[in-house]
């Protein structure tokens, strides 16, 4: 831009809409600081309660429709806030009319983490160990992993914030719980993990560890300012993962794992995409991987996800997912 313009859309305090959980506040605080740094504008956090925060139903029963996201999107569209921060894995694969995904900042650790009693790793859990997770994706892969080790685990459906979930282990009610490493990192509690689970054993949820920064489509100046926070490799990776999820027509509570990572080194730099679908009991999994050049466009990244999903469907993925979301 050749001229300097001073309008209300590029100066003054920005209101950041956030969920009020400790984890959401930590995530939003990180983005708020980054936005202050790049824009020089004050940022204030506006707490918004979502249905996912108030409902005590299992996520598998209420999930798939953006339960953590809708209220934040409404606040954006109403003009109550200027931009919002979501966990990308909670964001529905369909976009929202009138909103843009202004930035996908550099991703945190995408892996799942085990928090077990007595410092145990997954391999050290005894036969019949009780492992808490509300995620069909984690249950499917952890059950399959246990079978491969020649034993069984009992997956127990739990919900709640990080304190509540780790509390089940501290109280002795469960032998272990599985949570996103990114959440523990952002809360400064990664030291409580007894194992970072290799994606070879358990692929994370599409978008896990990444954040989404959304604003209104009619605020292009703000979108351009927020875009400075975008990390192109993270955006390409999560675009491929979410395209795989969308092509499988699965929601965020379906037993679908996906992880794209940029393989650097060697003559070429490639994007690898791995995907898995399974039955919750872990008796059958369809797991496939593909690589392509690092996508230059969102369309190319999405194509990689669609292709892998088509291969998975050809191998029977649809039959393993049970109820498909719409
Ligand atoms: N399903 C809820 C949710 N959404 C995002 C995270 C963690 C942070 C992230 O993945 O970025 C969590 C908690 C968890 O899975 O342990």
From TrEMBL:
In the UniProt record, does the keyword Transferase occur?
A: yes
* Cofactor(s) needed: dipyrromethane
**PROSITE patterns, from UniProt?**
PORPHOBILINOGEN_DEAM
Concerning InterPro entries, the annotation shows:
HemC, Porphobilin_deaminase_cofac_BS, Porphobilin_deaminase_N, Porphobilinogen_deaminase_C, Porphobilinogen_deaminase_C_sf
S-(dipyrrolylmethanemethyl)cysteine modification sites are 252
Provide the reaction this enzyme catalyses. 4 porphobilinogen + H2O = hydroxymethylbilane + 4 NH4(+)
- Provide the Porphobilinogen deaminase N-terminal domain boundaries: 14-222
| Main function | Tetrapolymerization of the monopyrrole PBG into the hydroxymethylbilane pre-uroporphyrinogen in several discrete steps.
Keywords for the protein's UniProt record, in alphabetical order: Porphyrin biosynthesis, Transferase
The protein's superkingdom reads: Bacteria
The UniProt entry, under PANTHER family, shows: PORPHOBILINOGEN DEAMINASE
Q: How does it assemble?
A: Monomer.
Cofactor note from UniProt? Binds 1 dipyrromethane group covalently.
What else does the entry mention about this protein?
The porphobilinogen subunits are added to the dipyrromethane group.
Every Porphobilinogen deaminase C-terminal domain range: 237-313
State the similarity comment: Belongs to the HMBS family.
Q: Could you tell me the EC number(s) of this protein?
A: 2.5.1.61
Name by which UniProt lists this protein: Porphobilinogen deaminase
């Amino acid at each position: 831009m050749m001229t300097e313009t001073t309008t209300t859309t590029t100066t003054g305090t920005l209101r950041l809409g956030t969920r009020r959980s400790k984890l959401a506040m930590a995530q939003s605080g990180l983005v708020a600081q980054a936005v202050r740094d790049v824009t020089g504008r004050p940022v204030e956090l506006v707490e918004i309660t979502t249905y996912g925060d108030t409902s005590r139903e299992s996520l598998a029963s209420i999930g798939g429709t953006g339960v953590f996201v809708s209220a934040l999107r409404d606040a954006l569209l109403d003009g109550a806030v200027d931009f919002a921060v979501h966990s990308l894995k909670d964001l529905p694969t369909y976009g929202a009319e009138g909103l843009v995904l202004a930035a996908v900042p550099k991703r945190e650790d995408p892996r799942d983490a085990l928090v077990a009693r007595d410092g145990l790793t997954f391999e050290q859990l005894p036969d019949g160990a009780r492992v808490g997770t509300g995620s069909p994706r984690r249950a499917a892969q952890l059950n399959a992993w246990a079978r491969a080790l020649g034993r069984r685990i009992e997956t127990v459906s739990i919900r709640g914030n990080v304190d509540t979930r780790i509390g089940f282990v501290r109280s002795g009610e469960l032998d272990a719980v599985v949570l996103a490493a990114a959440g523990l990192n952002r809360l400064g509690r990664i030291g409580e993990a007894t194992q970072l689970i290799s994606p070879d054993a358990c692929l994370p949820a599409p978008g896990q560890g990444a954040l989404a920064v959304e604003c209104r489509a009619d605020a292009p100046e703000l979108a351009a300012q927020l875009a400075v926070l975008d990390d192109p490799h993270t955006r390409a990776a999560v675009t491929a993962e979410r395209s795989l999820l969308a092509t499988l027509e699965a929601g965020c509570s379906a037993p679908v794992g996906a992880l794209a990572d940029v393989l650097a080194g060697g003559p070429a730099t490639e994007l690898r995409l791995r995907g898995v679908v399974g039955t919750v009991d872990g008796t059958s999994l369809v797991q496939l991987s593909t690589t392509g050049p690092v996508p230059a466009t969102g369309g190319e990244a999405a194509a990689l996800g669609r292709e892998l999903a088509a291969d998975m469907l050809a191998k029977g993925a649809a039959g393993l997912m049970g109820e498909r979301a719409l």
